[in-house]
Amino acid sequence: MKSFILLPFLLLATANSAGYRYGASDQAFYTPAMMQRIEPSLFPRDTPLLNAQSRLTLADDTIGVMAKLTGANLPALLAVLYGVTLALLAFGVLRIGAAIYDARWTPFALLAAVSLRHAIAKSGTNTLEGYFHPRQLAFALGAIGVYAFLRGRYVLVLTLLAVAAMLHPTTTLWFAIWLSAAAFVAEPRWRPAIAGAAVVALPLAWWAFSAGPLAGRLVRMDPEWLAAIADKDYLFPLRWPLYAWALNAGYVAAIVLVWRARRSAGLLRDRETALVAGCLSLLAVFAAALAFQSRAIALAVQLQPARIFWMLDFMAVVYLVWLLAEGGRRTPAVSRAAVVAGVLTFASVARGLYIMQVEFPDRPLAEIGIRDDDWGRAMAWARATDVSTGWLAHPLHAARYGTSVRVAGARDVFVEALKDSALGMYDRAIAMRTRDRLAQLDDFDRLTAERARELGAAADLDFLITEAALELPVAFQSGPLRVYRLR
Asked: Which domain holds residue 410?
């Protein structure tokens, strides 16, 4: 791909994601897991928490090995992987466009549309993220897999899915179902083999869930466990408000209606109908997951089936861009496609500028490492403490300061509300631990020195970081942030 195409897409995608930030959001989990693979002595207290999810993926192991082999520091490596993710996504998008569209400008219109980051309603997922996420890289590989399927390159499809599975199993699972169902429709001669493979997979799946690496995933989640993760509404589609159902149903309507329009116009490509059928087959998986969720089966929650609509969103965008640029052809297709590409690019530029200049005027386009501010300096001091130290901080410290104690300070922390509670879906003990610790800190803003000492003694903690002035020995201070010794 030529740099004059890639660089603008990378800039627009990043600006529309409110800038690139190391350690943000989901990296509060992924980054410590990667750090631990590089330096196993890290997080002696929080290892059970990190293992709740890290044992289900090879992303942390893979990136840890990459860091060791290249000698690159983790922030720089993740920034490179972020760029690689966007490059692969751009390649897949442009190739899908070339395979489906007629006008040469329409693939560029699709690329501009993809740069317009948006949330998938009530799924906990955005189409783009302002940081490296294994889920995004797996999606980019899946998008290239969609192109490979349209060209009948099945070995490449399998290879891409195998690599993606090492990074993010659930995202890969949805692409695997999509493209397997599409192959079943497109290749009648393969149907017995595909059906046979499915039959063989059943006892393997039973072993995996009964005695293998996924054992315990078919248990029913009791009311306490469900209550501990109840605020993660993206896990429970049965509780969706009406607007979420309407938005996600809109993807289905758009796909079906545009497919019918293309069929009526005689514009369907080879395997396109199969691709659409495979994509819509995800709805059956979603319905089955809802049935299991109604019985509180843990696996049906842990798979986060609402993220199926990310794939439907992608297919709908592919089709809607065609409808805008080429559908009906009331004007010459080439000039109309160029106009649509220009309008979508302008929209992406305007939105990106608004986000960076108005919504987040103090945020640079890219923060490769830990910011050199009061929090960053306090966390640099934390990294110089003994690796076994335990820290107490505001439960929402990652949201307040941009990175968590685990990411920025490389030290165990009593609790980090947003990500610790999300990890509770994988392990009941972790859910209960997080619930109990959050309850102990529900009055953190009114924390007294006596209460801090009590918490420190009970949980064997060494340091407290806060902006409050307390009668405790100060170990380090930067601006309003004080690090107190608890013993």
From this structure: 374-485
